[in-house]
Amino acid sequence: MAFKLLVSLLALAVVSNAGTIRKATCADGRTTANAACCVLFPILDDIQENLFDGGECGEEVHESLRLTFHDAIGFSPALTKQGKFGGGGADGSLITFAAIETPFHANGGIDDIVDAQTPFVAKHNISAGDFIQFAGAVGVSNCPGAPRLQFLLGRPDAKQASPDLLVPEPFDSVTKILARFKDAGFSPNEVVALLASHTIAAADHVDETIPGTPFDSTPNIFDSQFFIETQLKGTLFPGTAGNQGEAQSPLGGEIRLQSDADLARDSRTACEWQSFVNNQSKLQNAFKAAMAKLAVTGQDTRKLVDCSDVIPVPPPLAGSAHFPAGLNRRDVEQACRATPFPTLPTDPGPVTSVPPVPPS
Length: 360
Ligand code: HEM
Known about the structure:
The chain is mainly α and 360 residues long. It is built from 14 helices and 9 strands. The protein has helices at 2-9, 40-50, 59-72, 77-81, 93-96, 98-101, 111-123, 128-140, 174-184, 188-194, 225-229, 258-265, 270-275, 280-294, and strands at 12-15, 22-25, 31-32, 152-153, 202-203, 213-214, 246-247, 256-257, 305-306. The strands form 4 sheets. It has a 3-stranded antiparallel beta sheet, with no helix packed on it. A two-stranded antiparallel sheet has the order 4-9. It has a two-stranded antiparallel sheet with strand order 5-6. α3 (59-72) crosses α8 (128-140) and α10 crosses α14. The protein is globular.
């Protein structure tokens, strides 16, 4: 173990002819811009194999992405101004102080991925804050259509748990959600961009009777279907009715959060929401930029090393933007007043129900 670590640290720093670009060749022959990043390759291999089931965009990837957010959003300058501890942002406190933070109501179900990631943090020489963001970026790279996310290394260990009530709830109003994000440093457009994450997502606990119910019809592909399908008229509850934070969805087997339904229809966010429909490059660029910011929330970036080139290049998008079979433009609840909803084809065939995301 110690030997392995030493070997991976024994990276060769090479200065290019121009003398400007430093390239490091790590012990296993892989290269990266900075020798300090070599420690990440063994972690990358380990999590791809043993956390993400051989490089899938499945449940653990979805949960790991959710965890990047729940850890990072524990950051409130407003609380600090009141003389209270405002949280350390993307500092790994959700793992370091799991006993305090996982029981917070908004963190429902997050204990699964915290439990799954904790042994990896213990096994490798990496802080919990770095690990959470690294696992999120690596996981997203398994999803076709995703951008290659930035990753910076070097977050110190968290010293204190995040305070409660900083993670938004699906039953919060748009005003409350936007205010919470503003406090943490994010604009309404950045909130919409971050919610692209719900294109590779499912809910286990909004309706406990139907675990693994996805937010769009393609939960293993990073596409714009989430932004299309959340704009369609809600007609059913995929499981039971009356769950807190749930709105009616347009498709069997698909669940819609009240917060997503409201953000898609609110005048402050509707046009940005619609702008991602069938615009993969904007979707990728905006999500990448917003995630880069989220991943260093509360951190001093001058002390971090850019290890983005360790993150694998995601596979290209599979499929193209469409209305699900049986639905079309007439089902769109137009909310953006400035521009019409894009014209899209309807998937051929009979109306389908979306299958759940399987547990691994
Ligand atoms: C308004 C803000 C947000 C609210 C209210 C919200 C709420 C939720 C809820 C209730 C779930 C379902 C949890 C469950 O029942 O298992 C969920 C899942 C998820 N969220 Fe969010 N979320 C928000 C923003 C974000 C952001 C910013 C990210 C990442 C950048 C994110 C990533 C995810 C992912 C990937 C899942 C799926 C987890 C899985 O499939 O296991 N969410 N979210």
